[in-house]
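Hi everyone,

Forwarding the result from last night's run.
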Amino acid sequence: MSNLFLKRARILSLGLLTWGQAASLVAQPAPGNDEGLESEPGEPMDVAETIDALARFMAESTAGKRPTVPYPEDQRPASPVAICSLEHAICVHAEDEAAAAAGEWLAEAEAAALLVGELGFPVPEPDGGDGGTFQLDVYLAAMPVELAAGGRKASGEVGTRVGGDALLDGATAYARIDPTVTPAQRLPCAVQAIAEAGLRAQDPSESRLASGAVAAFVAYLATGAFGCVERLEAIQLSPEAGIAGPDVEALATLQLALMLISRRHDGGSGEFIREVWQLARQRSAMADALRASPTFFEALDRALKNSGESLAAMTEELGVARYFATRGEREGSSRALPALPASIGVPVAEIEPFAELPAHLPVHEPLLGPLGSGYAHIDTSGAAPGSRLDVWLRGDVGPKLVLTAVRLDAQGREVGRMTAPARRVPQSFLPIELSPDTASVLLVVTALAEDLRALGREPAEGGFAFRLILNRS
């Protein structure tokens, strides 16, 4: 019970209730029956009643003050039951050609559920007969139209609304997988679908972008594959779009960000991301309107700020880490991401040598979207001792752009880094002192995702332009 109390206490830190209010509520006598609790007037509340009172207070006192979203529509396919497990509470539903491989899919689903559970992420509970069985249902069926348009091949879907632990929002859920995926994709797709179903069962108000990205991250932890539909090469070779690209590429970009954060905060075990998901869970006052804030991304930013960082700082780090991840042990001093194949290195624009500056670079293309980055590199090996490289960033008014300069030695290893603070008007300046061990400078421009509450609920805007001006002194 104390664990549950600590979880509720963590929710308080998001600003739903001050610690003073919480302490007052915990200390006060229980209200009488006319206020809806069974305790007699003046009788002290025990721990369970205190938790319930806190949950009621937070839900009811903020009803109408925070944004809400409608309960998700149940899009359960009308597929017959093909086969059910004798050892695990899982059934695979399929029809037509997919039914012939239902036995193989059942084995993959059983393995996937075990992997998700071993990592500590939620596995959906049996749904009590919503799909014609009392087990967890896995459907081999085409994706809903909106997911298919974004390239998705696996998803977790929400069924009937139920009360979660301590009356937090909850739902029954089921997994859905496109049966046309290759045999090599089956286990990663099953893990991603079951993980997303478990996540959405705990928080049905979360955006598809959040649940899909965390589920893809779980698939990586469990199988080493970069999600059901692997788009790592696409997002590395075209890093500018960020989350403004197609759905599967937005998921892949966020998956990289979650990998970076996890390696930094829990050694890559996934515990930090798992606990942030729990932190974002909430209780809605109305059955037909789920509280939409705090979102997973808001909770993630708050958790990072409690560690002295922020989601904006991690976005900047992601831009730099994507460059180093394909450089191998010899060159990459940054180990924020796992090593990636050299063939998928981010494209880098080569600038004329230091001696030929100044230079006014053209507008960078492609244009940037949130969490997208553009790269440029300049050889400074011929610079005289004591020289300085001056860099100006000029960008579109709207998004916040971060300019980062990384000094590299002759082997391409990082020897120093400077970042210009993000500003509402994207006009930044960096004076870079070229130390004797500096052979070149990498310039990274990254667009931040600003409205974390809307992130994933509204289409991400892209098409942000920027250009660089360089001079020597």
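The domain at 316-472 is CATH 2.60.120.1050 (Jelly Rolls).

Cheers,
N.
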